[in-house]
Amino acid sequence: MIRVRLPEQLRTLAGVGKEVGVEVAGEITLRGVIDAIEASYPMLRGTIRDPATGRRRPFIRFFVAEQDYSNLGPDDPLPTALSGGREVLMVVGAIAGG
Fold first, then answer.
1. Torsions phi, psi of 28, nearest 5?
2. Which long-range contacts (CB under 8 A, 24 or more apart) does 32-36 make?
3. Side-by-side strand order, sheet with 19-22
4. Collapsing DSSP states into helix, strand and coil, what is residue 73?
5. Would you say residue 79 lies in a domain?
6. Helix-then-strand count for the chain, H and E
7. What is the pLDDT of residues 54-92, one digit of tens each?
């Protein structure tokens, strides 16, 4: 089970609490986790990544154990500490402005 912490806007849209748990078969990658999130919560399709390109949305960031994994390729492995729920994948909505 992979624990994922979603930003408030996505929690509201999906009608879930602070964290969700998803199953990812095989190696843990961003693509695998996002596929599992979108399968479990179809209302989130297109909110985390662009459905046409598969790239993360510009103001979405991914963190595990305070490390930024936002620029990883979609099929690059994430830390093994995510498996078994030892760590949480944080999906963060970045804020821009001046």
1. -85, 115
2. 33/2, 33/4, 33/78, 33/82, 33/89, 34/74, 36/2
3. 19-22, 2-5, 88-93, 60-64, 67-68
4. coil
5. yes
6. 2, 5
7. 888 988 999 999 999 999 999 999 998 998 889 999 999
82 phi and psi angles, rounded to 5 deg: -70, -30
Tell me, what CATH number does 41's domain have?
A: 3.10.20.30
Q: What is the pTM of this model?
A: 0.90
**Residues 72 and 33: beta-carbon distance below 8 Å:** no
> Mind listing the pLDDT tens digit for each residue in 18-36?
999 999 988 999 999 999 9
Contacts of residues 46-53 at CB distance under 8 Å and 24 or more positions apart, as own/partner, are 47/10, 47/13, 48/10, 48/91
| Residue span of the structural domain in which 83 resides | 2-93
- Look at residue 98 and tell me if it is in a domain: no
